[in-house]
């Protein structure tokens, strides 16, 4: 939904040249609208912000403290029927959409009566194939960039605030930073301030000095909330996020969910991955640095947080499996990649799989110390040993490859010293971290991500802390020459769509979500 999608903006005086007319809601629709507004804007600040947006006279507002939210909004509805505001139904729907862009009640009415030109809930992006599972995707329809053409092109700051004291503290903190905050809207859990700068990075640096929970909304984006979002944690526990800013990052949500397990949770520091669960039950991998909006996450979306199966690290997948299930999982994973060819022997219950696929990567240099050459065609052998599933399978890269986590299979001193290890893949699931629950679809995805340099390791924590308070690191690689080259050429890794070994710290998005365990 773009800026042009709104046919009229909320609030203000009637414009004689305006083509928009009042929406003729029937009694049932009016009741649904007021009931949903009472639930969404259930405190005095939230109610006041909506009434400000529609231009409702302050002198005619009931005493909020003397009524329940439903009673209060019923009284407001009576006043609106008496004509205290021009085009009240239209303005009320537009004001509600200003905060909850994809609320099904508000949006349904807007679509039904033509307030939204394109209409409909934003479709999720098509499920990405494993080779591009972390690629940036955009929703087929986006939220409006701005709710008012008259608003200055500056940033907004959404702050977690569940009380008047919280709102006052946030206002004071922003004023002390010289940001001249102006309230735009409020709910029971959050408030949006318009500030006087359009410089996103500079604003984030300023906010890093504060103790408030915040999300920065760039001038070109919309400061709306996702009213309800469901997330499964790493152990399957389900959480509900309420009033989640759509401009916070996917990674921020993942970290907040992991934090719910407490400081004693042993895996808190492990990298996370987040999947958007589609209507068919399949997961679509999200980029942790994308915003929820850009990732296509919308009202009542379902996310799944897990721990990254990092090459060279210990990351078991606790799922029961055996030979027949391994075969089914490999074939199912191959169906999603037209470029993947699976060979198996024997046919009935295979113990060896030869997997062919295409993925841009690097092959060994023509001469020692030279530059690696492009390598896109790959063949990997996965061997299930006689003691499988009690003993881990092994994987060997059969085609030439130049990668820190794969033992050299090209002519080199290391390959000549240990010829039996040529092409051996260093994967946590296939080493000391293996469990019989290894999921082979995940294994194939990890192999592809590894060779694409989206998931690889050169260092691992030693368990000791250095003088500077940071964890000390040890080398974690099979191919020393490849490790040295990768460290020296991080720009080429990033240019091909990979991730840096030690990525720059992303801009802090310290919004503290309202999270409930279900």
From TrEMBL:
Protein name as catalogued: Ubiquitin-protein ligase
Region (Disordered): 1-23, 120-153
Gene Ontology molecular function: any one: ligase activity
CDD domains the record matches: UBCc_UEV
Composition-biased stretches (Low complexity): 129-153
Keyword Manganese carried by entry: no
Keywords from the named record: Ligase
KW Ligase (keyword) present: yes
A Pfam family that the UniProt record links to this protein: EAD1
UniProt source species: Micromonospora violae
Domain (Effector-associated) ranges: 25-113
């Amino acid at each position: 939904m773009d800026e042009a999608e709104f046919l009229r903006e909320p609030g203000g005086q009637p414009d004689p040249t305006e083509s928009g007319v009042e929406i003729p809601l029937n009694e049932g629709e009016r009741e649904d609208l007021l009931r949903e507004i009472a639930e969404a804007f259930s405190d005095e600040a939230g109610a006041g912000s909506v009434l400000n947006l529609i231009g409702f006279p302050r002198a005619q507002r009931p005493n909020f403290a003397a009524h329940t939210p439903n009673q209060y909004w019923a009284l407001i509805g009576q006043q609106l029927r008496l004509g205290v505001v021009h085009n009240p139904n239209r303005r009320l729907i537009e004001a509600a959409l200003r905060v909850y862009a994809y609320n099904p009640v508000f949006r349904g009415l807007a679509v039904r009566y033509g307030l939204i030109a394109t209409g409909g809930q934003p479709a999720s992006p098509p499920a990405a194939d494993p080779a591009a599972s972390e690629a940036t995707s955009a929703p087929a329809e986006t939220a409006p960039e701005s709710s008012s053409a008259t608003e200055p092109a500056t940033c907004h700051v959404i702050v977690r605030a569940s009380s008047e004291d919280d709102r006052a503290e946030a206002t004071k903190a922003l004023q002390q930073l010289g940001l001249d905050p102006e309230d735009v809207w409020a709910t029971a859990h959050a408030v949006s301030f318009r500030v006087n700068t359009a410089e996103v990075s500079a604003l984030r640096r300023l906010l890093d000095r504060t103790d408030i929970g915040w999300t920065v909304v760039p001038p070109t984006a919309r400061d709306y909330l996702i009213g309800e979002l469901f997330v499964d944690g790493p152990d399957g526990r389900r959480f509900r996020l309420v009033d989640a800013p759509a401009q916070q990052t996917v990674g921020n949500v993942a970290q907040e969910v992991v934090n719910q397990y407490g400081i004693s949770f042993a895996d808190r520091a492990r990298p996370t991955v987040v999947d958007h669960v589609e209507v068919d039950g399949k997961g679509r991998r999200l980029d942790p640095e994308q915003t929820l909006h850009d990732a296509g996450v919308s009202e009542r979306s379902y996310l799944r947080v897990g721990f990254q199966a990092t090459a060279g690290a210990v990351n078991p997948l606790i799922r029961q499996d055996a030979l027949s299930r391994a075969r089914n999982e490999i074939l199912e994973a191959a169906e999603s990649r037209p470029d993947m060819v699976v060979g198996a022997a024997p046919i009935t219950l295979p113990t060896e799989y030869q997997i062919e696929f295409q993925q841009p990567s690097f092959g060994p240099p023509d001469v020692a110390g030279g530059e690696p050459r492009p390598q896109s065609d790959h063949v990997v052998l996965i061997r299930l040993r006689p003691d499988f599933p009690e003993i881990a399978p092994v994987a060997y890269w059969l085609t030439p490859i130049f990668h820190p986590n794969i033992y050299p299979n090209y002519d080199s001193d290391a390959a000549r010293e240990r010829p039996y290890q040529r092409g051996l893949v260093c994967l946590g699931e296939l080493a000391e971290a293996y469990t019989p629950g290894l999921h082979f679809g995940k294994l194939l995805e990890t192999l592809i991500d590894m060779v694409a340099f989206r998931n690889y390791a050169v260092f691992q924590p030693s368990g000791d802390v250095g003088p500077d308070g940071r964890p000390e690191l040890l080398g974690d690689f099979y191919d020393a020459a490849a490790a040295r080259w990768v460290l020296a050429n991080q720009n080429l890794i990033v240019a091909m769509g990979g991730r840096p070994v030690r990525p720059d710290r992303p801009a802090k998005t310290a919004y503290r979500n309202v999270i409930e365990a279900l």
